[in-house]
Design brief:
This protein has 237 residues and is an alpha/beta fold. It has one domain. The protein is built from eight helices and nine strands. It has a four-stranded mixed beta sheet. The chain has a three-stranded antiparallel beta sheet with strand order 5-6-9. A hairpin with a 2-residue loop joins strand 5 and strand 6. The radius of gyration is 19 Å and the shape is globular. The structure holds S-adenosylmethionine (SAM). The site of S-adenosylmethionine has 20 residues, from helix 4 and strand 2.
Length: 237
């Protein structure tokens, strides 16, 4: 039986099935994939994320790992705590929940960041964190995979490439989850595939073949973002 903290109103339960998961259940479920929740760059998507019960706990776990590894060296703590934050994604139908989720994750990250980096903590890094959350926690419908404006949900993927450099690439959620992966290697594994494939194109148009791993990977819909210092991603959107 749900307790008071899990329900905002009966109307919202009726209209949107909004019953938040209790902390005990969140922990029990995350423990099933414990190793991944403690891997700094491991990506998680919470569809129908509410105010982020699962994402908040994953962030706490990842930040505990970042702290254990890098607390003696605040610049590295800063970098890897941003990487941890950038690995979390959510989709939620109700705008007030989206706002609450972004704020909640920012608060958890910022509290830990400020405590460890103290006077080295920078506002531009806080701005980068807010920017990443604005792109990773999106208002939309996880069933139709569209935003409240009716456009496809597009997520930014952030990779720490080397040093302090982040590479951003954008992916269409629909393409990641629904597209069927082509079978076997392409006839010409070196073929260059178009970045503006339409849904009517075959699966090869939405996937690219990686010769090294001999497997197909989803193609980004935009990948020409410049390499950017992780504290400056907000200036290169
Ligand atoms: C049962 S609650 C779970 C919230 C959170 N994941 C948790 O475990 O505490 C379901 C949430 O999904 C949202 N929701 C309902 N339909 C949705 C849809 N089609 N796409 C995205 N979110 C949806 C509701 O607004 C609500 O916040």
């Amino acid at each position: 039986m749900a307790d008071k903290r899990q329900i905002k109103s009966k109307q919202r339960v009726t209209d949107h099935g909004e019953v938040f998961t209790s902390q005990r259940e969140v922990n029990a479920m995350l423990d099933l994939v414990k190793q991944e929740t403690e891997r700094i760059e491991s990506r998680f998507l919470e569809p129908a994320c509410g105010d982020g019960n699962f994402l908040a706990e994953i962030l706490r776990r990842k930040l505990a790992v970042v702290k254990a590894q890098y607390r003696q060296f605040p610049p590295d703590y800063e970098k890897y705590s941003i990487l941890a934050l950038s690995s979390l994604y959510g989709v939620e139908l109700l705008p007030d929940n989206v706002e609450a989720c972004r704020k909640r994750l920012f608060k958890i990250w910022n509290k830990a960041y400020t405590a460890i980096c103290k006077r080295d903590a920078e506002d531009r890094c806080r701005e980068a964190a807010r920017y990443i959350l604005a792109h990773n926690i999106l208002c939309g419908n996880a069933l139709t995979m569209t935003t409240s404006a009716g456009t496809p949900i597009i997520f930014a993927q952030w990779d720490l490439v080397y040093g302090n450099q982040f590479k951003r690439r954008d992916f269409c959620l629909d393409g990641l989850l629904r597209g069927s992966r082509p079978n076997g290697p392409p006839e010409d594994a070196g073929v260059q595939l178009s970045l503006d494939a339409s849904p009517s194109d075959g699966p090869e148009a939405r996937w690219e073949y990686d010769k090294a791993s001999k497997s197909w990977w989803p193609k980004p819909i935009k990948d020409d973002y410049p390499l950017t210092d992780y504290r400056e991603v907000q200036n290169h959107g």
